[in-house]
Amino acid sequence: MDDEVAMPRLNTLPPADMNWTITLRDKVVAITGANRGIGLGIAEVCLANNAKAVYSLDLMDPSEDFAALSKKSQGRFKYKQMDVTSEESVKKAIDEIVDEEGAIHGMIANAGMTKHQPALDFTMAQVKQLFELNVFGAWNCATAAARKFISLGVKGSIVFTASMTSYRPNRAAPSAPYGGTKAAVRNMTHTLAMEWAQYGIRVNSISPGFVKTAMTYYVEKAPDWNLKMQYYGGMPRLALPQELGGAYVYLLSDVASYTTGIDIPIAGIVGAW
């Protein structure tokens, strides 16, 4: 935070009349990269748990699946074009959300990209692109959200999408730079949680294993897929994006008022190979 700004510390204890139901009722949540894939699945679960409004902040145009979910949720699922790698773009989107909704309570820094190939085949430009989006983009979203939470006096929640590759290599589809970006995100989670706890801001992350999206379609098509499932045990399939949503909802909810600085792996035991 800026050195010249003296920020008051908030009482981080839950209220005496706390409702211990896990719900997002009355909460406004922003999710980066939610026009498709994991972000869209998370949005669906947030809306099912009564979020007042969920915003997809995405550089790409909304998909047909986005439009279907927005219609199903009676317009509570909304879109703003935003570039996570631009501080100004992120700040503008968050300001607009607050102007429209009166507040923002949760930020899910989910947007990211991957490229799977041997380390020696990467160009430096490709490595920099991964770090620019996955690390610097997540940083922009987290810091912009934190500043807004503090200015509004909101005990907000920030959730990063990390990855099981932040723990160990993905043998099925190796990517040393991608794993490095997600390890950075997971480490950043712990430090930001420590720094911002005094403001009542909680920072956590989720580490998915393989999730069924357009980027992972090839995994189940591998000729040794069934053999790998027998060897590694666990859930013998890829996760649906919506199966990650419950953990995000919990971390965004007021019931998680003492949960900060952790990573939750969701990988059906199998994880990354």
Automatic annotation (TrEMBL):
One of its GO terms (molecular function) is oxidoreductase activity, acting on the CH-OH group of donors, NAD or NADP as acceptor. Keywords: NADP, Oxidoreductase. InterPro entries: NAD(P)-bd_dom_sf, SDR_fam. The keyword Protease does not apply. The keyword Oxidoreductase applies. Belongs to the short-chain dehydrogenases/reductases (SDR) family. This is NADP-dependent mannitol dehydrogenase.
